[in-house]
Design goal:
Radius of gyration: 23 Å
Structural class: alpha+beta
Helix content: 25-40%
Shape: globular
Distance between the termini: 7 Å
Length: about 525
Amino acid sequence: MNRKTLVLPAVIGLLAPVLAACGGSDSGSGGGDAIAVGTTDRFTATKDAPAPLDPAYAYDVGTWNVLRQTVQTLMIQPKGDGDPVPEAAQSCGFSDSGNERYVCTLRDGLKFANGEAITAADVKYSIDRARALKADSGVFALLSTIDTVETKGDREVIFHLKTADATFPYKLSTPVAGIVNPDDYAKNKLRDGFDVDGSGPYTMKADVKNDELVDAVFTKNPNYKGSLTVNNDKVELRSYSDADDMGTALEKGDIDLITRTMSPQQIKKFSNESGGDVDLVEMAGLEIRYLAFNTNAPTVKSRAVRQAMAQLINRSELVSRVYGTQAQPLFSLVPATITGHSNAFFNKYGDPSVTKAKSLLTQADITTPVKLTLHYTTDHYGSGTKEEFEDLQKQLNDSGLFDVNIQGAPWTTFRPAEQKGKYDVYGMGWFPDFPDADNYLAPFLDKDNFLGSPYDNGEIRNTLIPDSRREADRIAAAGSLTEIQDIVADDVPVLPLWQGNQYVAARDDVTGTAYALNSSSTLQLWELGRGVSG
């Protein structure tokens, strides 16, 4: 029988820590075929991005989901919600009242998958390497509050921070802080291709065709020592060119589970079907979608143009037409379920209004209709993206104030062009590095932001972000976080559109699907197992 399982959302930041299951890799289910998982994520090595799986470079949800299986971090986000807990570390914590000195002690007997011992020097090497390489993906910015890394003996690592950072434990749970072997990862160069080595719960063997990873086999790492219980011996991750092919493979039984990105139509189908061998799991998600602006581009350099777009776009209609109940309108970069969220854009602009938008443009002496091209990626955020941009185009053009074209491109073309400032307005998605409001603000607004945005607000960068990071109690940071969101709503360097739920569809003999993804869309393959078909 087909079942739809709901994992109810919780308010992030108000939860008590949930500890990950303790134990090594000895408790996995023995024997059986590999659990096959489908994804539409594409993993391609190009001239612009020759090292897609190097932890010092990777910075998208797909590549991170590969790295989280293979490269171990000092801390890890628990399978439910809550504060990060030790993983490669035995313990971690701030050793001062100002949140500027963070100390981790490694687990005793920690090893890389090849059996070599891991020492504090390896951790320092890994962190310092990512910081020094400063890859153009911008991922190194997650480590920007580190001043120096010190070691004490073979097991103690001490992080001296430039300024207080209460979110630092979360940052140590991200792949950029993954522990790598100096023998495999050169100090001054990214590791090209698709080889990955670490001390995580799995080792990985990649099947590569035409510079693209099409299949990855994850095999339980016998030398893994951490906080996770690995419930299987082998998982195969297969990359599909589109959601329809992936869905067909699931229904035929060629694969056991699919996650991102199912089409809105597939989610609706699996949700409504009764009978059959596929179950749908729906859970709260923290994914957001937004428009980003090159604020130096002549077409959108005027704040009035960006404000007029914010005044016109009807998020409720957009979500209803394209995504239905799978998404909710979003009026801030910070999702509604994250502590510190405010409806800043609704507070400023209220309901969509052509009259108000026209007044904004008139007062700024902007000639209408304003000609723009909205750019989107055709293959990175799911099949609904094109329809979403068609709806945005229609809304803006129907106002008579804009003359909008839309243009799609594959991610391998889209992302480098966006980073080089070739697009004036473009659509992006964000899956959080960790579930805290800081991670929905600093990556877009701070120095070395991952968009490469020229927008620079001194109050945000120099005062409000640092002030918010001083507060270990994230509720106490709400004042600074709200001010940031209000400034963003006024200046509109980005325009939030919606936040979405996340889904897993699986054959009904697969267990652990409720924890296959955590709130940050981390793929937790170690949770999967096989049970009795029902």
